[in-house]
Predict the structure.
Amino acid sequence: MNLQGLEKLLVRISEGDEQAFARLFDIYKDKIYSVTLRLTESTSQAEDAVQDIFLKLWLRRKKLADIVDFENYLFIMTRNEVYSAFRSAVRQKQLSEVLAYSTPVSDNNTLSSVMENEFAQVLEEAINRLPHQQRQVYLLSKEHEMKREEIAKTLHISSETVKTHLTRALRHIRAYSLSRLDIQLSWLCIFLLK
């Protein structure tokens, strides 16, 4: 796509045109996926990064028409998303090491069981807080292991709507779980270090 065509597409997206956004997605999804796959060496992380990047683009759509060099902007956004994922993984690993180091070996099974129960409870709370249709899509996808097209047919919605609901549901569940688990893991660390 030439520069003028891209500028027109960005203007349409900034006005809320979902078809224009779908076109932008089709143009750049494979490039972003390739870059993130090369950097992360993980297909699931690369897929998550693509979803997160396009979700952020849609949320920032009103500003897209003002971007002078969109491809550079997209590259920087992709790089930042991957770096953010790396930082999050490092923090997760450090927390796991702290918990493993501060917990006697005999207590590891009990701790693991407690943490699994806490996580299951928080996950259930997060799922129950989802809007009705997001919850339906999430449960059909994760618990019934249905594919996107199957969910779309079952709920009489488009495949893209299923994808949007699932992306939003996962984002909400992650955010809710992290906010709740941070508090509970902090409490657990304080309890274990006494």
